[in-house]
């Protein structure tokens, strides 16, 4: 720039000197193999996504999620069930070499290898062909993954005890329990709360103690000798405390 000569904009690498219309590239030399991302491909993706979204919304309206009772952290017998899209992983953890001491294999190693292979599939099979029959690796692995998910989900649904699951989550009107009373304190201190819950309504591993219709003497006998899946000698307190606990439980009535 020289004095008196004015200024001229020459542009740089970030700002073009001339604005060009956003025209998609010409892919006519690759008929049927590729297309412009915007708007052709993206519009198709949005249309497919909209169809699935409407379908899911219709399902949620027709079949709303079931409402269960308030979560009780002291109920050790409650068996949680994941949502349907995680049922295949839930079923995987039931097998011998994917649970217990091998839990790390079922929870991290097997899913990690499977999803990692799915992520790497586009980089391994980089051929220009779009037809599935011409891409054996990607097609075969996707079919194997889909078959595994469908099979494990089916096994989880068939083998799950839905009646027990419904019973353990059922909303039950419980009595007003005075948690400051001596009977409840004895109930809590002796570990009864771990199986029968804070509201004494029980769970999958223990029955409800509300409205049993048992006399205090019958309750004391059960606490000492056990019944059903409850082993004997569960109560560790004194005879006086056992009497107060039995009296407390016998007075509980459902509202």
Automatic annotation (TrEMBL):
Positions of the Cytochrome c domain: 178-253
Q: What is an example of a GO molecular function annotated in this UniProt entry?
A: heme binding
**InterPro entries referenced in this protein's UniProt entry, alphabetically:** Cyt_b/b6_C, Cyt_b/b6_C_sf, Cyt_c-like_dom, Cyt_c-like_dom_sf, Cytb/b6-like_sf, Cytochrome_c550/c551-like, MenaQ_cyt_c_Rdtase_cyt_b/c-su
Question: What are the GO cellular component annotations?
Answer: membrane
Which UniProt keywords are present, listed alphabetically?
Electron transport, Heme, Iron, Membrane, Metal-binding, Transmembrane, Transmembrane helix, Transport
> A Pfam family in this protein?
Cytochrom_B_C
- Does this entry carry the keyword Transcription regulation? no
Q: Where in the cell is it found?
A: Membrane
Q: How does it sit in the membrane?
A: Multi-pass membrane protein
The regions listed as transmembrane in this protein's record are 46-64, 105-124, 136-154
| Predominant cellular place of this UniProt entry's protein | membrane
Instruction: Detail which positions bind heme c.
Output: 192, 195-196
Q: Which residues form the Cytochrome b/b6 C-terminal region profile domain?
A: 27-154
Q: Which family does it belong to?
A: Belongs to the cytochrome b family.
Function, in words: Component of the menaquinol:cytochrome c reductase complex.
Q: How does it assemble?
A: The main subunits of the menaquinol:cytochrome c complex are a Rieske-type iron-sulfur protein (QcrA), a cytochrome b (QcrB) and a cytochrome c (QcrC).
Name of the protein: Menaquinol:cytochrome c reductase cytochrome c subunit
**Which organism is this protein's natural source?**
Bacillus thermotolerans
Tell me the organism's taxonomic lineage.
Answer: Bacteria, Bacillati, Bacillota, Bacilli, Bacillales
């Amino acid at each position: 720039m020289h004095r008196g000569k004015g200024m001229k904009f020459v542009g740089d690498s970030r700002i073009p000197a001339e604005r060009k219309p956003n025209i998609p590239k010409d892919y006519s030399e690759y008929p049927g193999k590729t297309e412009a991302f915007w708007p052709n491909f993206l519009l198709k993706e949005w249309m497919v996504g909209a169809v699935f979204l409407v379908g899911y919304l219709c399902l949620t309206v027709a079949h709303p999620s079931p409402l269960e009772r308030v979560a009780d952290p002291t109920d050790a017998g409650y068996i949680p069930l994941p949502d349907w899209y995680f049922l295949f992983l839930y079923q995987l953890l039931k097998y011998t070499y994917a649970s217990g001491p091998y839990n790390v294999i079922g929870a991290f190693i097997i899913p990690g290898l499977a999803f990692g292979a799915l992520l790497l599939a586009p980089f391994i099979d980089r051929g220009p062909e779009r037809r599935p029959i011409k891409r054996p690796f990607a097609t075969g692995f996707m079919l194997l993954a889909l078959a595994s998910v469908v099979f494990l989900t089916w096994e989880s649904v068939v083998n799950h005890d839905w009646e027990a699951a419904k019973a353990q989550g059922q909303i039950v009107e419980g009595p007003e329990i005075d948690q400051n009373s001596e009977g409840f304190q004895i109930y809590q201190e002796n570990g009864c709360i771990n199986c029968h819950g804070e509201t004494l309504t029980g769970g999958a591993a223990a029955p409800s103690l509300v409205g049993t219709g048992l006399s205090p003497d019958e309750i004391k006998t059960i606490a000492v000798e056990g019944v059903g899946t409850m082993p004997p000698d569960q109560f560790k307190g004194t005879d006086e405390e056992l009497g107060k606990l039995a009296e407390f439980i016998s007075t509980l009535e459902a509202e």
